[in-house]
Amino acid sequence: MPLQIVLDPAAPDAPYEQLRAQIADQARGGDLPTGYKLPTVRGLAEELGLAANTVAKAYRALESDGVIETRGRNGTFVAAAGDAAAREAAEAAQSYARRVRRLGLDRAAALSAAEDALRATYG
Description:
Elements: H1 15-28, E1 37-38, H2 41-48, H3 52-64, E2 68-70, E3 76-78, H4 81-103, H5 107-122
Antiparallel strand pairs: 1-3, 2-3
Helix pairs in contact: 1-3, 2-3
């Protein structure tokens, strides 16, 4: 089974966020191929020693991000996430560009604000 999840109880991120990030990284990195069937919410919760709601929250966030897709009773699968993530990022960037222009920021100030936000997010 290619899905490899290691949760760190001492990590600053909540378990659902650790789970979400690891699945997203594995899907976007190609370790989890498009179409790979993920374990059920209950099955993964049991395997990881988490509450089912914690796994469900991670799956909802991943689905919202376009990383996974639920196909009803057939299960939850890794989606073709690269295209969806790139498209959503481009839409967010366009929205940001329009907003900072309305605010009257010049290009350098807009880029600086974006870089600050990325630094705060990625470290």
